[in-house]
Description:
Elements lengths: L1 H41 L1 H26 L4 H44 L1
Helix pairs in contact: 2-3
Amino acid sequence: MKIILLNQYMETQEIKHDIYQEFFLKFLMVLGILGAIFLLYKLSSVLFLLIFSLFLSVLISPILNTLNRFKVGDLIGIILVFLFLLLIIFLLLFSVIPLVVKQFVSVFATLSNTISQW
């Protein structure tokens, strides 16, 4: 009788131990996921810059390889590529900004006319 009770007691202790172990492992998993999310949140600006620089290097690499075939050095090629990109950005900005300003002026004029008639 004592042996049966002892076996039952040992089995319940093993079940309790398994439940605690499973709970502890799930708790550590949730804690790890929350820690990873917090780490990504804190490092988001650095990760953005890293991903942007990788994207930029992948974008520029084929252009530099083409310029290297024409005996243009890497430094000169990088300077040329960035100057070209800046030129494109400035041209786009100077062509888009007047249109945007014109649209804002017309929207505000229409809005003020609507409000005054109301």
